[in-house]
Amino acid sequence: MTSMGEPDAAVLASAWFDADPDPETRIQVRAMIEAGGPELVEAFSAPLQFGTAGLRGPLGAGPGAMNRVLVRVVASAISELIETRHPEGDSRVVVGYDARHKSRDFAEDTARVMAKAGMAVTLLPRPLPTPVLAYAVRYLDAAAGVMVTASHNPRTDNGYKVYWQGGAQIVAPTDSDISALISTTHLLGEDDLAPLDHANIEVAAESLIESYLQAAVSLLDPNSERSSRVAYTALHGVGTRTLVSAFEAAGFDAPFVVASQGAPDPDFATTPFPNPEETGVLDGLFALATEVGADVAMANDPDADRLAVAVPHGAAWRLLTGDELGCLLAEHLLSRSDLGRRALVLNTIVSSRLLEQIASNYDARFAKTLTGFKWLMQARGDICDASDYEFVMAYEEALGYCIGGPVWD
Description:
By secondary structure, the protein is of the alpha/beta class. The chain has helices at 9-19, 23-35, 37-45, 68-85, 103-116, 130-139, 174-184, 206-217, 239-250, 283-292, 322-335, 354-361, 373-385; strands at 54-58, 92-97, 120-123, 144-148, 157-164, 201-203, 230-233, 256-257, 296-300, 307-313, 316-319, 343-348, 365-369, 390-396, 400-403.
């Protein structure tokens, strides 16, 4: 059987064509086989690298792009590693997905591969924010989780984030172990997948999402005011429904949503590069915020694991940096905490040193890590497991924030 490590591009391409269930990418593979030459060699000799949290790349045919053949191989490799790490069996995996092109196909293929391998699979019921997947891994005490998303990449991309037991993104050596298994995993056919209605696959109930919302609301001071007037955009991603539900559960008035960007749209019709940090991307949000007289303007990226916040500044709007919002959150949370020197806050080496000073002012512990939330959560676990510290918050300057215990991402 042909594996991802097959050295001959033409042989791999032929096997890839036979294994591919997607008519669109089958046409692309057939065209490359017929044309031959450098395009074929490039497409089938340079696979996507499984990196810091998984895969991310352009949609297309062959091992150098995101497609159903590759996703099935990766899902099989992850299943094999879970079996090695959990030889007692009965392991659960949670699979979530955003609203990009092919995301649902990739998620369902992942669930089917893992179910065939004997995993119990919980498939999230619809496109949802990445933090819901991270929460579900922890909530269900799953061995792993997979989130199909390319975050704030362009519309042409998709990706595959992997989480491990506890709900944090994978770190070494798990990433390299999966990568090694991918290179030796054979291309899967339909016989290697369970049907979607297999007994090992369950679709998560709405109660799981309700539990996530209640966990988020529990982080608020129950006695604080709920008077803010908020303008919001999901940037064509999956954030709107969950955020509006969270506002309702917390007792806030519903936010004003940028109508043209509120519903999921894999083509990102109003912005080709849906990153809230990019110049001009939030112009529609600022226009709405001005129109409704908002106190604050908020934006998620397409998988809703990053948050941008802007405040009125004269007649315009000022976007807070990740450092500014992270430090404001830390100051607020530590000011209402009674943990004292048992409180723990973290940020990364590219983030502001001000957090360390804030922590010192409250006699709290501060720690700094390498860039990436996986390292923040690794440090969080190492420090809290080895002592009586209690985690308060972590952030990195690229608009990512983690507060309290429900979500380790």
